[in-house]
Write a structure and sequence with these properties.
CATH superfamily of the largest domain: Response regulator
CATH class of the largest domain: Alpha Beta
Shape: globular
Strand order of the largest sheet: 2-1-3-4-5
Strand content: 5-15%
Number of strands: 12
Order of helices and strands: HEHEHEHEEHEHEHHEHEEHEHEH
CATH architecture of the largest domain: 3-Layer(aba) Sandwich
Number of domains: 2
Largest sheet: 5 strands, parallel
Length: about 350
């Protein structure tokens, strides 16, 4: 309990670190393709927009391809990039396994592949024998990969919040979606921390599919789970879209909104608004939306020049009703903020400086 409360206070302050202090001079005239998981979703579109802005700032031709949330379309985008003789491909929230054949073709064509918020084909949840296809990926503190970050930091920050806010007496309805590797890693990290709580328990697991998000079936599943578990005091969602596309509506309709602690991740615009209003969601474990796109361009530049990847400085921050403020310069979470809601660091200005553009 004491450990969870201490972690929560650190996370409320934010754990972003120093920004990179040097970079190789950007190569000129690069043709870079960003394969975005779903441009209709802010969690994919904002990082893609950040990458396009950053790439164009250094004179690169950056094409954002909308993967439309479909593996076949991801593959189409990668193959179109190959045909366009891309100098590099950036994967925006697309797992290797979802486009393995096309990525193998890109490797054969000698096109470097950089990924963020994505899992490679050697991910342990896929079993043994998978071969990695990413040439580089976004790195975090102490060289942590996204997989390590998700389980050891992101997921556990949510668990610490739940433990601290319920005084170690959480009764959790956990919504589970196993089609994405990120959700499976989030569950592993969250559940490991909850098991160590002692007085906390998962009283119900509610499976849903990505199709349930599109068809509106998730809200009915959430309503049923709330009815069947009247003693639950926590609702766990693996990502923000599941809240805005059904779970939050079920919580507010139940009449139990004030009694339920509803967790979220990312910090997309609609979710920040919900937490600010205290309707259907109570906390955010922030993941910066636009910053990662800028960091990806820096990472791709290093990759193209055979330079090692560096810690981008991206940490996390827990936002809730007890936070000093909510972001005031963006509608979505995009890095640690202070009590005035303004960013504590200017990553854009820093990248322009180390790229020799300011």
């Amino acid at each position: 309990m004491k450990e969870a409360k201490a972690a929560l206070e650190r996370n409320r302050q934010g754990t972003d670190r120093a920004l990179p202090d040097s970079s190789p001079k950007p190569l000129a005239d690069q043709n870079i393709w960003v394969i975005s998981c779903l441009e209709a979703g802010e969690g994919c579109a904002a990082p893609a927009a950040g990458a396009k802005e950053a790439g164009e700032a250094i004179g690169w031709d950056v094409t954002v391809f909308d993967g439309k949330g479909t593996p076949d379309v991801y593959a189409q985008g990668i193959r179109t990039a190959i045909a366009d003789k891309a100098d590099g491909i950036i994967l925006d929230v697309i797992d290797c396994i979802a486009a393995k054949g096309a990525l193998e073709e890109a490797k054969t064509a000698g096109i470097p592949i950089f990924a963020f918020y994505s899992f490679d084909c050697d991910d342990p949840l896929l079993g043994e024998g998978g071969q990695p296809l990413f040439d580089a990926e976004l790195l975090f503190e102490d060289g942590q990969t996204w997989m390590q970050r998700v389980e050891n930091v992101q997921a556990k920050s949510v668990a610490d919040y739940v433990i601290a806010e319920t005084e170690g007496a959480a009764k959790i309805i956990q919504f589970t979606e196993d089609e994405l590797l990120v959700t499976q890693h989030l569950y592993r990290g969250f559940n490991q921390r909850i098991e160590a709580c002692g007085g906390c328990e998962i009283v119900a697991k509610v499976p849903y599919t990505l199709a349930d998000l599109a068809t509106g079936k998730l809200q009915a599943k959430a309503e049923a789970a709330l009815t069947q578990n009247p003693d639950a005091n926590v609702v766990y969602s693996p990502y923000d879209a599941a809240l805005t596309l059904g779970i939050s509506q079920a919580v507010t309709a139940s009449g139990r909104d004030a009694d339920l602690l509803v967790t979220g991740n990312e910090g997309l615009s609609a979710n920040l608004a919900a937490v600010s209003a205290g309707k259907g969601q109570d906390m955010i474990a922030g993941a910066p939306a636009r910053w990662v796109g800028w960091a990806a361009i820096d990472g791709m530049n290093r990759l193209l020049q055979g330079e090692p990847q560096v810690d981008a400085g991206i940490g996390n921050q827990t936002l809730d009703a007890s936070s000093p403020s909510m972001p005031t310069e963006t509608t979505f979470y995009d890095g640690n903020i202070g009590a005035d809601g303004k960013p504590l660091q200017d990553y854009e200005a820093n990248y322009l400086r180390i790229w020799g553009l300011s």
